[in-house]
Every structure is written in C-alpha cells, then in structure tokens.
TrEMBL record:
Protein name as annotated: diguanylate cyclase
Listed EC numbers: 2.7.7.65
Gene3D superfamilies listed in its UniProt record: 3.30.70.270, Hypothetical protein af1432
Organism: Halomonas nitroreducens
Record InterPro entries: Diguanylate_Cyclase, GGDEF_dom, HDOD, Nucleotide_cyclase, Rev_trsase/Diguanyl_cyclase
Length: 536
C-alpha cells in the first residue's frame, strides 16, 4: 500500500503560472511576437460586449448554479500567489466525492506513469500538479452544475486536444489551455439557468456548435463564450482563465499560437462529434493546410495521441459514453470519401454547366425567333419598330441622319391569283434574300407585313436612301424573283422614303407612316419608282 509522500511538495503557484512568459520566436515565422494569451493571462476578460439587459438578467438570476463549497475554495486558493499541496488537499478533503475523484485521477494510467497508487488527497494533488488538479476540481463542479452531456463530451475532447496541440506548438501554455478548453462552454449553463426550455431547444446536435453560436447571437446579442467568461468570474475563476474562455470560440486565423490551439481544440471536438466524423476531420485537415504555421503539423499524429488519451480521460471525468473512435483511421477514410464527394460534386457541376449552356443557347434561339419573320428570316414588324425607336432616340440625341425605305411589291395580288400562293411565297422569300444582300452592315431590313418590307438606314440622308432604293429597283429589273414554266418572273416595287432631315419625326410609327404615304404616292405615280417628301 502506498504511503503518504513525505516530500514537502510545493505546487507551482497558479499566479506564477499565469505570469507573463513570452513565447520565444519560432523558426516557422508564425509567432514572432509574445503570445497575447499569455501576456494578458492575468488580465480580466473584456465584458463590454455583453449586452446590458443580458448582464442584468444574469445578475438577477436566482437559478444560476453555484459551485460546491470545496470547488469554490480551490478556486479561491488558485488566485493566491503561493499555494502549497497541503492547502489544496485541505480544501478538497472536506468533500469526499471530490476527494475520490482527485485520487482516482491521480491513479489513472495517464498520470500514474511508473509510480505507485496514491491513496491520500495530498499525494494525489502532488502528482497531478496545479493545472490538472484545477481541471479535476472544475469538472466535478461542472457536473454538479449539470452541463448538458453533448457539451461535456465536447469539453473533454477539446481539453485533451488543446493540451496535445499546445505541447507541440506552445508548451508554455499547455496547462492553461487544457483548463480553458475544458471550461469553454460553461456559458451554456448560464443560458440554461436563464431560459431553460427555450434555450434547450437551441442546443445543437453533435458537431453543430457553430449553429448554436449563431442562434445565441441572434437571441442574446452575444454567444456563450462571453457569458461563460462572466460566469467564470462570478465563480471566482482566475481572470486570465476567464479571458481565455471569452476568447475560445473566435476564428482560427488569429496569428496567436496559444489562441489558435484553444480554438482549434473546439473544432477538433466538433469534427469528432459530427454525424460523419471522418469527413468532418478530413475537411478540418484541409482547412489547416492553408493555415499559416500549421502546415508543418499534420493532424493525423495529433488525432492518434487523442485516440490514446481520451478513453481514460472520459472514464475519469465520469462520462457515460466512451469516446473511443480511431481518429487516424477515420481521417484516412474521411479523406477518401472527401475525394469521392468532390469528384461527384464536380461531375454534377459539369452537368449543371452543360445544362446551363443548353439553356442559354435555347434562350438565344428563342429570342432570335421572337425577332424574326419565320417565312423570310428577316426582322419582323415588332423588332423593326423596336430598333427604329432606339435608332431615333440615338440619332436625335446626336443630331445625326436616319432614313427609312417602305417597299411594297407591285400587283402582288395579281401574281398570287395568276400563279398561286406557293409561287407568291417563293417570290417573297427570294426578294427577302436579295434585300438582305443589298443592304449594308448596320442597316436593318425587315418584313413589315404581307408583301411590305422596311429598311432602316442609320446615318443616311434622303439622297443616300434614294440611291439605295434605286439600286433595289435596278436589281429587280435585272434579277427574276422566280421561274414559271421555265420562264423568269420579274417583279417591281414601289418605294417610299422618310428621312429625319425632311421633317421632325417623334416615333417609329410616325416615320413608317411618312414613308408609307410616300410609297402610296409612288403607286399613284405609276409604280416601280421611288418617292420622297423632297422630290429628288
Ligand atoms: N403569297 C403570299 N401573298 C401574300 C402574303 N401576304 C400578303 N399577300 C398578298 O399580297 C396581296 C397584296 O395585295 P394588294 O394589297 O391589293 O396590293 P397589290 O396587289 O400588290 O397591288 P399594289 O400594291 O397596288 O400594287 C394580297 O393578295 C395578299 O393576299 C404572303 O405571305 N404570301
């Protein structure tokens, strides 16, 4: 049987551990300033961001859990400068359950190493050291305060992860970070005391911590990290620790290594508790690859250490559900699944792109169709009017020139009657392609209706329009528009011209009506000719 150690063991005083101890510059260049976490470890958290109404409600709350007397006493001691093993042991001993917890922890595989069993509180405290004693005492206090089990699991995983991370990245802060990670969610206890059922409905499923934080911000104007810091101070927790609790849930990209370890510990716990821990851990590993200072620290060995330490820890902290997951294996499988997921996502994305391209093409075709006369392929009446209105606005604003031809094929009724509508259609189609050939780029030829056509001539004066019209008449004389029984069939047209220089014109309809009137004049004057407001 082990006997009480006769060593006059003296614990490192908490206050001394909180003393500002700059982290030496690292060769990886991540941390070349002192750690603000350590530098401010004795400073109280800034509770300014706690909304006034919420602060008042917390102060007036009658149901806020208090800590068992022994726990409060240990916390009080932890604020003093010089505290010895005896004082801690004496504070713990009056509470038999707490004493049992501390002794069991000291005899666990994690703390025992090669030593013998300890049976006294004094020896247990001596073996555990100040930070682990405080952690054990706080975990006892938190269970008494009834922190919800999912968050308790989170806290335990996070605390072990924080210590493992800190041992690799900022060993000076390992103890402080272990305790801070363990306490990071105590704010939930405060919110449960305020709004029990309403708040409980917001409690996340495993791995949805971020959602809980966002819901808290919406409902309370701050999240449980800040409330946790307030609660910790009200329990007499050392201010530096309360400050770490307030800081525990911020972004990973912070630049401070100790804060990064603390915040990452929560992310690791969330990933481990997620419905698909493999994929969640693989996603986290991907995120870390881009995080400055962590490229050299792969997640896999850290998870291996976590896997080795967690079962004993969960058992000690009296967790009902063992948290035995083979994280490294999970990470490996998760990475593969992530690759598969990414591949299937990119296949789906390519498919969507193809569908989108098809849709765009269909849309463009539909739009084109809505502008086009189906028989001739020229612009239809609506599109002609729309474009003419636009041209009129632009030309009037720039005081430029604009002219329009209104073309009507002569004696078309006769042609239909004599040779049939089929041949009439052929003539219309051939005339349309001749017109298309004749006009310049930038002009717009369209079928206005029946055997009537319009050509918009931007930048053209009345004289210029007359040249185009005459060229068209000459073409009709030279080029047959169909063949009947092997014989060429020629048609003629009457053309009216409207031009902005001839008369002020306010709209497309007005300009077309002007040209139409001139076209009728051409008909009256004998057809196969051009007519303008100003005779040429
Ligand atoms: N084949 C065919 N005929 C059409 C089409 N649209 C209109 N028409 C015909 O074109 C003819 C136009 O006749 P009118 O307005 O009397 O004029 P016109 O016979 O050309 O006589 P003028 O214009 O005075 O020289 C009508 O018989 C219409 O049926 C079409 O798409 N295809």
């Amino acid at each position: 049987m082990a006997t009480r150690s006769v060593r006059a063991a003296r614990l490192t005083p908490f206050a001394a551990r909180r003393i500002i101890r700059p982290i030496p510059p690292r060769s990886n260049g991540v941390h070349d300033t002192d750690s603000p976490v350590l530098a401010e470890a004795s400073a109280a958290p800034d509770l300014q961001a706690l909304p006034a109404g919420l602060s008042r409600r917390l102060q007036e709350c009658q149901t806020l859990p208090s800590l068992p007397a022994a726990v409060s006493q240990v916390l009080r001691l932890s604020r003093e400068e010089e505290v010895g093993t005896d004082q801690f042991a004496r504070a713990i001993e009056p509470d038999p359950a707490l004493t049992l917890r501390v002794v069991a922890l000291a005899n666990s595989a994690y703390y025992r190493r090669a030593g013998q069993d300890v049976v006294t509180c004094h020896d247990a405290v001596s073996r555990l050291g100040s930070e682990a004693t405080l952690a054990a005492v706080m975990s006892f206090g938190l269970q008494a305060a009834r922190i919800p089990e999912p968050l308790w699991h989170r806290a335990v995983i996070a605390s072990v992860a924080a210590r493992e991370l800190a041992q690799r990245l900022c060993p000076e802060s390992a103890g402080l970070l272990f305790t801070s990670a363990l306490l990071q969610d105590i704010g939930v206890i405060g919110l449960l005391a305020l709004d029990d059922e309403a708040y409980r409905r917001q409690l996340p499923h495993h791995g949805e911590h971020l959602r809980l934080m966002l819901a808290e911000h919406d409902a309370y104007g701050c999240d449980h990290a800040l409330i946790g810091a307030w609660l910790a101070l009200s329990w007499g927790v050392p201010p530096g620790l309360a400050r770490c609790i307030a800081d525990s849930h911020g972004p990973l990209e912070d630049g401070d290594m100790a804060r990064l370890c603390l915040r990452l510990s929560g992310r690791i716990a969330d990933a481990r508790l997620a419905p698909d821990p493999g994929v969640a851990l693989a996603r986290l590993a991907q995120q870390l690859e881009h995080l400055e200072g962590l490229q050299a620290m792969p997640l896999a060995p850290l998870l291996q250490a976590l896997h080795a330490r967690l079962p004993a820890m969960s058992q000690l902290l009296a967790l009902t559900q063992p948290l035995a997951l083979d994280d490294e294996d999970l990470l490996h499988q998760g990475k593969q699944r992530l690759v598969e997921l990414t591949l299937s996502l990119s296949t789906r994305l390519q498919q969507r792109h193809r569908e989108l391209d098809d849709l765009r093409r269909e849309n463009a075709a539909l739009e084109q169709r809505s502008h086009t006369d189906p028989m001739t392929g020229l612009a239809n009446r609506a599109w002609l009017e729309h474009c003419l209105d636009q041209r009129l606005d632009e030309t009037t604003a720039q005081a430029g020139a604009l002219a329009l031809l209104f073309i009507d094929l002569d004696h078309f009724k006769q042609l239909n009657d004599r040779h049939g509508h089929g041949l009439g259609d052929r003539v219309l189609i051939n005339f349309a392609s001749a017109l298309r050939e004749l006009v310049r780029e930038g002009d717009l030829a369209g079928r206005y209706g029946g055997e009537e056509f319009v050509v918009i001539l931007p930048g053209e004066t009345s004289d210029g329009a007359r040249v185009v019209a005459s060229r068209l008449l000459a073409l009709l004389v030279a080029q047959p528009m169909a063949e009947v029984a092997g014989e060429p069939l020629f048609v003629s047209a009457s053309i009216g011209i409207a031009s902005l220089e001839d008369a002020p014109i306010g709209s497309a309809q007005e300009m077309i009506a002007t040209a139409d009137r001139q076209m009728y004049r051409a008909k009256r004057d004998g057809r196969a000719r051009v007519s303008t407001v100003r005779p040429g």
